[in-house]
Design brief:
single chain; 177 residues; two-stranded antiparallel sheet; 4 helices; 31% strand; binds inosinic acid; binds magnesium ion
């Protein structure tokens, strides 16, 4: 399969690394008085690379969980209808939970997840997103820990795909012509 289309770097490996280190510090401070492991829920598949780096920057107890979510619709437009394709393997009742998402675009996915996970009665529920497109989410989504805000453009790499490709790019890019 070819990944040979020209790709412009939007956020470099170095920028990602240093932002994750700052995010980890924020998260550690927020839960400094919570000795029990916090539950990091990675939303498949886009967040796995971010989660892998973020959790290794967190020198505190964590548990890793995953949820599969798919929204109906085509590759570049979110339809707003969210479906759970894989659920957690652990209970989150009474626990500190952080949803780890690759990108908040319209915010529909994260709003749905927040609503759904709240019903399971966690001690706290927060959101950590690597990227947000504020012009699309209109600031309606409470993102507790945010990596980068970007203009409304389609990005790939560092977990983010276009038709399942490009997730393995070590940086975040935009496709050129
Ligand atoms: P939302 O529900 O509109 O916030 O979009 C959520 C999902 O759409 C994200 O978790 C991504 O999987 C996908 N998505 C949104 N924007 C992009 C993008 O620029 N590149 C790759 N995937 C994206
Ligand atoms: Mg995603």
């Amino acid at each position: 399969m070819n990944q040979s289309k020209k790709i412009d770097v939007l956020i470099s490996e170095e920028q990602i690394r240093s932002r994750i280190s700052a995010l980890a510090t924020e998260i550690k401070q927020r839960f400094a008085n919570e000795p029990e492991p916090i539950v990091l829920i990675g939303i498949l598949k886009g967040s796995v690379i971010f989660l892998a780096d973020l959790c290794r920057a967190l020198d505190r107890p964590v548990h890793l969980e995953f949820m599969g979510v798919s929204s109906y619709g085509d590759a570049t437009v979110t339809s707003g209808v969210v479906r759970i394709t894989q659920d957690l393997t652990a209970t989150i009742k009474g626990r500190n939970v952080v949803i780890v998402e690759d990108i908040v675009d319209t915010g529909l996915t994260i709003k749905y997840l927040l609503q759904m996970l709240k019903t399971r009665d966690p001690k706290s529920l927060s959101v950590c997103a690597l990227v947000e497109k504020p012009s699309k989410s209109k600031g309606e989504v409470p993102i507790d820990f945010l990596g980068f805000s970007i203009p409304d453009q389609f990005i790939i790499g560092y977990g983010l795909d276009y038709a399942e490709l490009y997730r393995n790019l070590p940086y975040i890019g935009v496709m050129g012509d």
